[in-house]
Each structure stands twice: as C-alpha cells, then as structure tokens.
Amino acid sequence: MFADSPQGGDDGRRSDASENRPWLLHTAKRKTTAGPAARAADPDRLLEEVASEANLARALLNVIRNKGAPGVDGQTVEEAEAQAPRLLAVLRRDLLAERFRPGDIRRVWIPKPGGGQRGLGIPNVVTRVVQQAVLQVLEPIYEPSFHTSSHGFRPNRGAHTAIAEATGYLEAGYRVVVDLDLAKFFDRVHHQRLLDRMSQRITDRRVLNLVRRMLKAAVVMPDGTRVAVEEGTPQGGPLSPLLSNIVLDEFDQELARRGLRFVRYADDANIFVRSERAGIRIMASLRRFLEHRLRLQINEEKSAVRKPEQVHFLGFRFLCNDRASPNTGITLSDKAKRAVMNTIRELTPPNWGRSINSCMEALSRYLNGWIAHYRLCTPEAARELGAIDAHVRRRLRAIIVRQRKRSRFLYRHLLARKISKKAAAGAAYCGKGSWVKSNRPGMTKAYPPAWFCERMVSLKTRWSELNTPRVSDQLTLAL
C-alpha cells in the first residue's frame, strides 16, 4: 500500500461521496492515455494505460457500482468515493513509479449450495480499483482470442449461452457427457506458469510485475493469522476471473485441437461425445493433460462420464430420455431445488414478526431474480415450479397461523374471511402445529393460490410470461 494514500495517512478531511460522482463520471469519459491503436503500436507502455486518469476513474466507478465488503483495512467504497480525486492522483503516481503494493487479502468463508464452504479472498477497496483498472486494459487484449465455447466471466456470455450451446450438442446426437470439475482450481493456479503464458501477449514487464504482486498478496484468515500465498488466484477480486480464463484457455484450445465439442464455464466443463467408450478414453486423456501440462487436479467425486440426465450444469439438468426425439428438455438440477428451498426457508422464518405483506415483498424480490436465471427451463419444469410455488404458499399460511397465536384467534380470523364454521374449526382446533394447520381446508380456502398471485410472484406464472413472445415479436415473425 502506498504510504500517503487515504489508508496510510489520511489528514482527517472527508467530503461527501456524492459530491465526487460528477467528477468521476466526467473523468471516466476522457480518452485513455493509450487507445487500441496505440496499444497495438506500443505494447511496452500498457502501464500508462492502466494508470491513466480516465481508466482509474472508470475502475473506481465499477468498484462503487459492485459495492462489496471492506477489505482488511476496513475502508468502504463510500469512503473511497469521498476521497476520489486525491485517491486516484496518488494511485496514478504510485503505479507509474512502480511503488504500489497491494493490501492483504481478507479470507471469508461462504456456504456452498451442495454443502461445505467456499473460500473468498476480499481485497481492500484500493486494490480492487487497481485490479479493475488492469482488467479494463487486459480484457480487450485477450477477449478476441478466447474460445467461443468458454462462457464464464466474459462480456455478452454467461450461463444462458452455455446452456444453449450444450443443448445444441445434445440435440445433434452427442448424448454422452464427459462431466469435468477441477478440484480447488482457484486455489491451485500456478503463478509462474500463468505469468509465463501472459508474457506471450503482454510485453510490458511492469504490468506483469504488478499482476505478480497482486497474486502474491498475503491472506489474512478469520482468526487474524497472516498466510503467505504461493499459488492460486483467490475468488473475490475483479481480476481473478480473467486470470482464470487465461489459464484455462490453454485447455480450451487443446479440446478444440482434438475436434471435441465442449462447453466450459469457469472450472466446470462438459465435453459431448457419441459413446460411453469415447467418453472414458477422453476422460483419461484429459486427466493426463490437466495434471502434467496445467498442473491441475480433477475433482474425482464430481467428475465422470454421464448420461445427460445425470449432468447438473449451472443449476440446470438436461432431459434426453427419448432417443427418437432430438429435442432436449431443460429443468432444475437437484442442487438448484435444494438451494431455492433453503432460501425460501430463510425468508419465511417461524418467528416472522412483521406483516405478511412485507414477507411476500421480500420473497418476490428474490424469486423474480431467481426465475430470470431459470427462464431457460422447458415445459418439463412446470411441475417443479408449481411445487415450489405451493411450498411458498404453505409457508406463508403457516406464518399467518402462528401470528394468530391462539386457536380461538385463528378461528375468529377464518370466520372473518367468510370461511364456514366447520372448516374454520377444522383448521383452528385440529390439535396440530402451524405447519399442519396451514394445509387444512379452512386455511387453503381462506388463502387460495389466487390470493397470493395478486400479491406476489408466482414462479410458474412468471416463467410462462418470460417465455411467451411479445405481440410485437409475433407480428415481426408473421411478416
């Protein structure tokens, strides 16, 4: 970290972060020190482009938009924005003088959907700005040469394009999948090998040295222990995804050289072949390539030669049961179903103390985003989406039951909702807990599906809306 930065020697004067936003926007619109033409003509001066005022301003704006937690130093993005002009001036000076030193990385652990924990490395805000600035310069250099079957962490690509390409291979008759998962990939990237590969395209040694210093930044564990880093590119920083794609592009090019059909998203890759025998042979060959050439390990528990129905990829599962039909169904993976159920459980706690409407609002915000990701599901998923909707309604009814506290209060409440005395008594006085009462006829009549659909998102309905062409699109196709 630079000595007289806002982290190292703040003079105590703070300005409102919002006051600097116009300045940042104006500065970010300026031309960079070296545009694409200059970069091609003088590749030895990439650091000047990284450290240009406009590039750093754009980097800070991107870090602000992405928000994120503070690093080891505790500085927030709001504090960085409040000091933007001075912060960027010091950053520019220290980068050009090669005095910038990344701060330590804060290690945090987050639960994985399938169980266990995933380690993230959170750089401090200033380091994130520098990583973002480097990303903005290096990504245009590497992006055109990346393979088209690589979909993770790339502009205009993502899970949807990956699933679409995979579906195309399955429908073309490649219905055996070599399902590869790399073991602890982000923790095992070999630093020198990565830098050697980067040096084939990046001749500015100053940029390579900057990347090296960021890779070698020490990690501070949750207990405060400071650990030196010898390998890996920790998830959590803006530059890590690009570096991972640079490493695995060699794998992509090897698959392409062999004429294989594949889809890769980060450290998950599916190779599509026509027979199980071919899949077994390819799995053995790729294991040797990954271990000996890239120094990476296959996750043996998660990797195998599988039928499409057994593959869980990016939260989706493929359905190709009918060999006579080329069509491929897309539904939810088991892991995706468990994850959404767990989140619904967290958003509908038994002790919910606010109004039921506020609970439905929180659920709607989450479910809207969730179904946007899973809109690629085909009609085969309708039953599963309907089952999730029913589960949501039942949990909400259970909250309504618990909020009435006593059976007689629930009985009066149901009568007020025009439920017959018999049905109301059957729900209120059944002698069971709130979960059983939530599914009794008195409760389901008082709060039918239509009542919830008027007030919150229905996954099945929203999925149908997302997959129904707009009238304007239908007219265009007709013409």
Structure explained in plain terms:
With 479 residues, this protein is of the alpha+beta class. It folds into three domains: 6-145 and 191-227, no CATH class; 155-182 and 255-330, Alpha-Beta Plaits (2-Layer Sandwich); 334-478, no CATH class. It contains 24 helices and eleven strands. The chain has helices spanning 6-9, 21-28, 36-41, 46-50, 53-66, 77-82, 84-96, 125-142, 159-171, 185-188, 191-198, 205-215, 240-257, 276-293, 334-347, 356-373, 382-403, 407-416, 421-428, 434-437, 441-446, 449-453, 459-466, 471-478; strands spanning 105-111, 117-122, 176-181, 219-220, 226-227, 261-265, 268-273, 304-306, 312-313, 316-319, 329-332. The strands form three sheets. The protein has a four-stranded mixed beta sheet, with no helix packed on it. Strands 6-7-3-8 form a four-stranded antiparallel beta sheet, sandwiched between helices. Strands 9-10-11 form a three-stranded antiparallel beta sheet. A hairpin with a 2-residue loop joins strand 9 and strand 10. The model is unreliable at 1-15, 33-41 and 471-479 (pLDDT under 50).
